[in-house]
Amino acid sequence: MPRRDSEDGARGGAPRRDAHADSRWRVAAWHAVVASVALALGAAEGAAASGRPTLPKAPWRGEVFVVGSSSIGGDLGAEVETDLRRQGFDVLRHGVKGTGLARPDRYDWFATSAWLPVSTRTLAVIFYLGVNDAQGIFEVGREWLPGLGRPEGHGSAYAYGTPRWSQAYLRRLVSFIDSFCRRGARDVFVLLPVDVRNRKLEDKLARIRDLQTEAVRWSQCGRVLDTRGDAEWLAGDGERQRARRQPDGFHLTADGARLVWGRVRDQVLDALDRLEGLPPGRASRSAPPPPPADGLRH
Fold this sequence. Notes:
Layout: H1 16-49, E1 63-68, H2 70-73, H3 75-86, E2 90-95, H4 109-115, E3 122-128, H5 163-181, E4 187-191, H6 199-218, E5 222-225, H7 231-234, H8 238-241, H9 254-276
Helix pairs in contact: 3-9, 5-6
């Protein structure tokens, strides 16, 4: 049977063209909001000059991008965005259900990262991906590698869990993180996948988390944010009284989102405070050479 996406439970996910069009609308809307704020601030300055009372202006602290799968489009992303805005940051949030880095034929996050307006003005990118990646690595628009024979599984070059899959996924993660670092983002925070109720999926996500942590070590400006801490709660009676997960077992409720963000919030805010004091376009930290090439496009 065709595989169902872990995060949205629907086959096929959102068509790439529609998702990208929606994303472009979000970016355009974000720029419109920024322009409106600038006009409002200009009007406020004019009012002050004329002696009329004005509201105090919050200092602009820099921009932060929050991107990822459907959890970012839902309660987790909303919690992060609301809190960062409250702290004075400009936030662009973009979540696409049923997506990850394993299936660019379904949604190409590298294409998305290329048109997101990340620049030297960007303090940080926060991304949450991985729950949908416990499947074969798939490549679009390329010949199969010599010696591999026919693709395995659902048209993928490498079956999930094989050594080649791990190597390909690691390189893809490093490339994705560095795609933001090279364009000026000072830090890229990788939110590791949360604890989930399904034991089989949780076992697979343990491998995903290990590879994401390793990718951060290879990257130019990545940082790990460990979201775990709900495993015992999800298996106990307390989950029925105040659910941290939605009925599917992996999407967060509003309560769960607050708890998960609360675990990593201070790390993020401390880092953003530090990054504010650095000049725009600071050099990324030095990194070791990338992992051995596997021949895949990144």
